[in-house]
Amino acid sequence: MVSRIALLLALPLAVACAPLAGGEDALAPPQKASVPGALFVAGKFGNTLSKVDLASGSVAITVDSCANPHELATSPDAAHVALACYGGQSVDVFRTSDLAKVTSIDLGDGARPHGIVWHANGDLYATAEGRRSIFWIHDPLGQADTFEYASGQDGTHMLAVAPNGNHAWTTNLGSRTVSLIDLKTRRAPRSVEVGEEPEGIWLSDDGETLWVSARKSDAAFKLDPQTLAVRERIATGRFPLRITLRPQGDYAVTSDLADGALSVIDTASGEVVRTIVVSSVEEAMERTQVTILFSPDGERIYVAETTANTIAEVDFASGRVLRRLPGKGGGDGIAIIE
């Protein structure tokens, strides 16, 4: 099973459970919903960027993007969305209103940017997997000064950034490590092994707990952000690719690709309190559930089903799949504005 998962993720480059909604054969017809805002979807197989209107559930705009686009991040004022061009070496920025590209920031030969954060300070931060580093992009819509920091690790894939912008943390798939990178003093990074193939990463809003999901360990980890000591290991569903925290901070959620489900972890107790079924286990490999994202109010969670070209919208309280939105072109990276 894992070999097929790895193949799908590499393309195109060389249980209080919810009612089962995965049996739908095709995209559910768009439904009217009292949901404001828009969802942005990076189509990594189609090399596209789409804007989905959440009220109607339909695609408003689709534009061509760079090769193999992956993660997305919206600007603090919601006016722009940044795209990590995993098949190339740039971070591209688009207007959220009409998806017009406003700038392309070159990170150098072989960069292959993947994880991306648009910080409240207005700066962008991105991993450069091909260069074993991360970039701090100061004033991305203006001078766009870039500063590179070596992780010294293989597969520097996803990242989190401290609220004050002084530190960043990365997951490094190839080295099986998590790294702490000092963005101000440029001290040598600190790296520790955390499970098998750590990928998902999220820093609590107070900066006191670093959450990591290790996909081949079927586990989530609570780490001390400064020492990287593991405070707790939590068994999750199978192959947890991503981890995110609810905006309220009360729950962490992992995206368990092999189960087509979400593990919901009480952040205080560290216990998995329920599992939300997004699709059946039999359908999990056909849908390839990857990125997850909460709505700003924490009431809904969006689940990218990459090979099904859908984004499942899930009511977090009930665990019910409300509808499946278009995920054109192999939707993977997603971002939201209201």
From TrEMBL:
InterPro entries in UniProt: Haem_d1_sf, Host-pathogen_enzymatic-act, Lactonase_7-beta_prop, WD40/YVTN_repeat-like_dom_sf, YVTN_b-propeller_repeat
Record keywords: Signal
ATP-binding is among the record's keywords: no
Signal sequence range: 1-21
PANTHER family for this protein: DIHYDRO-HEME D1 DEHYDROGENASE, PROTEIN NIRF
Record's protein name: YncE family protein
